[in-house]
Amino acid sequence: MPSGSEVRAEFTDPAQNLAFDEALLREVPAGPVVWLWRNPVCVVVGRGQRIAREVRVDDCARDGVPVLRRASGGGTVFHDPGNLNVTLVLPGPATRPLEMLGLVMSAAVEKLGLPARIGDRGIFVGDAKLCGFAVFRTKDVLLAHSTLLVDTDAARVGAYLTGPPPDPKPLDSHRSKVASLADHGVRLPLIEVEDTVRAAAAGLLGPLPPREPTAGELKRQRALLWSRYEYPDWHAEGRQRS
């Protein structure tokens, strides 16, 4: 496998983060790419989900919490600065798309001193979800990403997401009890958590030297902002601008 890298990029706007996340896939890297990032407070729904079924829309509007849509599948997630996002982009076909992401994140959680269990769409410690997973792939590239609750308040997560609907549909989120690293007694500076994830990824994928975003990735990000992530219909209904 060609050598990989860790891209170091920080954006303050959640739309920019989601656009850059997809841009890493669209640029078809030759080797593995890892990106660690965080969003301000927002709610992010999966590609095909219906906001009304997933989100307490009135509560989000009251509190100024934006609701956005990402390109990958999976369930709805509450983001804030205490929730670390880990993006893994792997070139080539993937018959088991979540396998490497699960290995990386479970290794990181175990390095942090907790017993990790890979369960339905995420990693659990005991009966509480610590990491959620989602994937998006083309015929040439896989993007798999995870959330890692560092010190997000579990009660706040539930404040903006709906409960299980009475008429479950295939694309509905699978609601689980959640607990952060802090809830499990792991209270570390964010940089130490990030370095633990970096070490776990490098242990499985080989060296991942840091680099700046490429010109192609930033150009692709701008194009995706125009067609999707700065277009209200994308977030509301999943329709992109043509």
Automatic annotation (TrEMBL):
In terms of CDD domains, this protein maps to: LplA
Q: In which pathway does it act?
A: Protein modification; protein lipoylation via exogenous pathway; protein N(6)-(lipoyl)lysine from lipoate: step 2/2
Q: In what residue span(s) does the BPL/LPL catalytic domain sit?
A: 28-209
Pfam families in the cross-refs: LplA-B_cat
Instruction: List the SUPFAM superfamilies hit by this protein, alphabetically.
Output: Class II aaRS and biotin synthetases
The record, for Gene3D superfamilies, names: Bira Bifunctional Protein, Domain 2
Q: Identify the domain of life.
A: Bacteria
UniProt key word Ligase: yes
Tagged with keyword Ligase: yes
**Which UniProt keywords are given for this protein, alphabetically ordered?**
Ligase
Instruction: Tell me one GO molecular function of this protein.
Output: ligase activity
PANTHER family in UniProt = LIPOATE-PROTEIN LIGASE, LIPOYLTRANSFERASE 1, MITOCHONDRIAL
Protein name, per record = Biotin/lipoate A/B protein ligase family protein
Organism from which the protein derives: Amycolatopsis silviterrae
